[in-house]
Each structure stands twice: as structure tokens, then as C-alpha cells.
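May I ask you to comment on the folded chain given beneath this request?
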Amino acid sequence: MKKHVLTLLTLLIYGVGMAQEGKPSVKIFSNFNYDMSAEEGEEAYKEFEVKRAYLGYSYKFNDEFSTKVIFDIGKNSGGSDYTAFLKIAALSWNFNESTKINFGQIGTKNFKFMEKAWGKRYIYKSMQDQQKWANAADVGMSIDYKISSNLSADAQILNGEGYKKIQGESGLMRGGVGATYTMSLYGNDLNIRGSLDMMPREQYTDSFTTQQITTIAAVYEIGNLKLGGEMNTMLNASNATDNTKTGMSAYANYSLNDMYSLFGRMDILDSKNVNDEQWNMENDGQLTIFGIERKMTKGVNLALNVQQWSDAVEEGEEESIKTTMYINLECKF
């Protein structure tokens, strides 16, 4: 693995020397975490982690065409904590002033707006990403269209398997459409996004149907305060008819000065079926995050925070709560 990473770094450095129009990029997420939920007399679990490393290179051919390659180094399902995956390998075409077309292994639209609004991916993923409702990247094609100065629309068609798998045997495609609108509220920008994601069924019986994810999200900044929120509903989850998931996420960030900011977030996950039963209780619950962030220098952020997860339980059962203290570090250039 070390040999592969060194090879990637060598290629990036070589690219810098060969093309002045190109730009390498590196992003690293690491942390120290301490389990604050240990029972009395038990040894609290603690560890240092490097959760993610991204190595990328972008190149601009001219004003119309550009390309980007990003490798994602992280954990895989086979048990390795440091496996390199090809995440982005895309060509972008600025067709005209209003239209941009992306082709190849591209970044998806599903939760990009929310991830940017939350703004702290190195601490915790956005809700849809964390709960694996959608993939951050996939093989396919997307189109961005600027309708006016404050309204844009986008559409995508994808394999639907994500960037760690090839297309499934069924050959079914996953598609989505969305729109983003910016309006002025008390002299500040309010950005609103709505989107629909659809994944077709593989089995044609009454028990299975098309999965649909609808999202409405917004972010608003006033002075030093930034507020964001999203409401996500998944109908026919995993293509099972009448199985529904809902996910709400709200976040806030308050800048104390140029170096320090306070932040908080709450996610609530729920599920229901046709009989009004909570069918996905093992994954339902509530997440709370609060902490303080410091900008150490350009490209380096440090955050001390507490993350608490409360499992959903049946009425009368004892609530299970896990609390962990984190020191997260992000460096990017």
C-alpha cells in the first residue's frame, strides 16, 4: 500500500512539472477519539485515526474543457483501513455560459449542497452520506444549467453502484434532478435546494417498486451566524414497497473571530412501514454534535467536539447512548 501511495504522489509531483495549467491537491482527515460512555471500572476505548486521504490533480485544457482525477484512500469492506480507490476521473465541458456537462466517474449531486452547507466533512459526513442513502461519486453523466442569476437546475444519470463497484448485472441506471434558488432575506442570501433521486427495482413483483428520495434543504448566513437544515424522505427504501425512511439534519456555526468558531448539529433518523411500524429501528436514532473549531493556518483546521448517538428504542426500553470526545484535524492544499 505504501508503494502505491508513493507512486500516486510521484505522479502528482511529475504532473506539476509538466503542466503549469494543472493543479495537484491533497486533503487529509485525522483524529483522536475517546469513548466517554465506558462503564465504571472499564477501560475507556481511545485511538488515533487517519480516516481519509484524498490525492487529486486537475487540468484545464482551455476555457471549455477541463479534467480531474481524485484518489480516495480509506477503509474498504475487506477490512483494510488504507485502500486507494479511484473516486473521480471526469471530463467537464463548458458547453456555453449557461451549461456545463460532466462525464466519467463524477461527483454526484445528491448531498453536495448539504455537505457544503454543513462545512465540516472532516468531522462528520453529511446525513445522506453517513447513512449511505447515496454515493459521493459514481460513473455517469451530469448537466448543470444556469437558468438565471439566482436559479440553477441539474440532472444526472448514473450506474448507481458508487465508485467502489462496477455496474451491476441488471444494468439499471439511477437518476436524479434538482434545482437551487437564491433569494435575499433581510439583506442576506438564503439558498434553497430541492431534489429528487430515483433508483429502479430489479424484481418486478408487488413487493418491490422504484425507490425515491426527495430532499429539501436550505442554508442562511446572517452576520457571524450560519444556519443550515435538510429534510430527506426515502420512499420504498431498498425498493421494498411502502418501507419509508426519514432523515432530518440541522446545523449551525457561529464565528467568534477570524480563528475560532462554535458549531453544533443534530440528526434525527426514523422509519415507518405500511403498518406504521418502525421497521429500521437498529439504524434509527438521534445524533448530536457540538464543539469549537480553530483555523490554525490556511488549509489547516482543528476541532474539539463531542459526538453523541442515541439509539431508537421501543417504548419502555432503556435508552442506549454512546458519547465520544473527538479532536479532529483537517489539512488541505
